Amino acid sequence: NAGVTQTPKFRILKIGQSMTLQCTQDMNHNYMYWYRQDPGMGLKLIYYSVGAGITDKGEVPNGYNVSRSTTEDFPLRLELAAPSQTSVYFCASSPWTSGSGTQYFGPGTRLTVL
Amino acid sequence: EDKVVQSPLSLVVHEGDTVTLNCSYEVTNFRSLLWYKQEKKAPTFLFMLTSSGIEKKSGRLSSILDKKELFSILNITATQTGDSAVYLCAVLPQGGSEKLVFGKGTKLTVNP
After folding, report:
1. Residue B77 belongs to what domain range?
2. Cβ A31–B97 below 8 Å, yes or no?
3. A58-72 residue pLDDT tens
């Protein structure tokens, strides 16, 4: 199993550009999450999904959108990039039966908006 | 609002020292507490605690939860340079979405 994979690893955007961060998991997990991590800070939840076709906002959803058309994929869309969105983005997944909160993280995408 | 506070925010020690990292929380309907280790990339799971007083151990790392006082500690004995990382504490409240609430982390630096 590859686990949770994310692409790209790095990206530089100009203000106002758009992009999609890809996330795929091959563990058949129902739950998937998007976090951002700013320097010296913990992880903040952007959006999450409890299954295909179901998404909901986390703590910091403004400026982002998600979709979950399949169990495996959970892309994160930035429509009009702003410097405040410069961060490291992590995707994570968790099995339905976890009950403990254990999440498996992807390697992250480092995004810089100039 | 659910909150997780870790202390200290950063710590520098020498190899061989023992360190204790702290995590306190205010969470509605606590379910479990998790510790993650984050080196330069993604967080990796260390421990999950649900019951008070039970110590979880893995090699030189151990953790204990006090549900009455709402805190947990992570101990690392005989530290090595490879223990240098950010240690994240997260709490899972009751609910069906498995949404974790993370602290800001403790940055541990172990010098040779």
Report:
1. 3-111
2. yes
3. 989 999 999 999 999
SS3 A4: strand
Q: What is the CATH number of the domain that holds B37?
A: 2.60.40.10
Chain A residues with CB-CB distance to B under 8 A?
4, 31, 33, 40-45, 48, 50, 56, 58, 90, 94, 98-108
Query: Rounded CA gap, B102 and B95, in Å?
Result: 16
- The 10s digit of each residue's pLDDT in A28-50 is 998 999 999 998 788 999 999 98
Q: Which residue, chain included where needed, has tokens 């994570």?
A: A92
Tell whether A61 is covered by a domain: yes
Rounded to whole angstroms, how far apart are CA atoms A8 and A58? 23
CATH number where A18 lies:
2.60.40.10
B72-90: per-residue pLDDT in tens? 999 999 999 999 999 999 9
What is the span of the domain harbouring residue A37? 13-75+82-98
Q: What's the number of domains chain B is made of?
A: 1
Instruction: Classify the C-alpha dihedral B55-B57-B62-B65 as positive or negative.
Output: negative
Contact A49, A32 (CB under 8 A): yes
Would you call A43 and B50 a contact, using CB atoms and an 8 Å cutoff? no
Q: Angle at Cα B89 formed by Cα B87 and Cα B95, nearest 5°?
A: 150
